[in-house]
UniProtKB/TrEMBL annotation:
Annotated Gene Ontology cellular component terms: ribosome
Protein name: Large ribosomal subunit protein uL10
Keyword Metal-binding recorded: no
Assembly and interaction partners: Part of the ribosomal stalk of the 50S ribosomal subunit. The N-terminus interacts with L11 and the large rRNA to form the base of the stalk. The C-terminus forms an elongated spine to which L12 dimers bind in a sequential fashion forming a multimeric L10(L12)X complex.
Role, per record: Forms part of the ribosomal stalk, playing a central role in the interaction of the ribosome with GTP-bound translation factors.
UniProt xrefs under InterPro entries: Ribosomal_uL10, Ribosomal_uL10-like_sf, Ribosomal_uL10_bac, Ribosomal_uL10_bac_type, Ribosomal_uL10_CS_bac
Organism: Marinobacter zhanjiangensis
Family the UniProt entry places it in: Belongs to the universal ribosomal protein uL10 family.
Keywords assigned by UniProt, alphabetized: Ribonucleoprotein, Ribosomal protein, RNA-binding, rRNA-binding
Cross-referenced PROSITE patterns: RIBOSOMAL_L10 (PS01109)
Domain of life: Bacteria
One Pfam family of this chain: Ribosomal_L10
Amino acid sequence: MAIRLEDKKAIVAEVNETAGTALSVVMADYRGVTAGDMTALRAKARSENVRLKVVRNNLTKIAIRGTEYECIDEALVGPTILAFSMEDPGAGARLLKDFAKGNDAFEIKGLAFGGELMGAEQLDRLATLPTLHEALTRLAVVTQAPVTKLARSLNDVPGRITRVVAAVRDQKREAA
């Protein structure tokens, strides 16, 4: 079915807006995946703030012009689903990686992050990035460690003084 020009413009504008604010994008070939599985994937994507887009390649190529995802232009061949990660750069990669484990027909084509096109073999690199919450937790642990060590050291000083005084007392008792 032909798409009217106004509809094409709306699709291009929507994909361009999504690509302009996304942190990363993962591309996959979805041929052979059932409609029920795709519906489940879309529901999970919504809960993880990943925007899935299935758009004709020529419209996608127009939509990504002027964004950091222009690099995926040459990878847009055949049926492609795009997973744009909106809050966490690794969210789309984790989502599609988990989905591909249960669906042999689903094939990851590649991904783009920071204006760089990467092959499907780099998916684990992006999928293992910590979430914002995990990164903040790691930062808190790293910044808290020196303070904790300082507090332990300061608390140890009175204990050492007490042990020295007790040792001196014991020596004086033994000498007397």
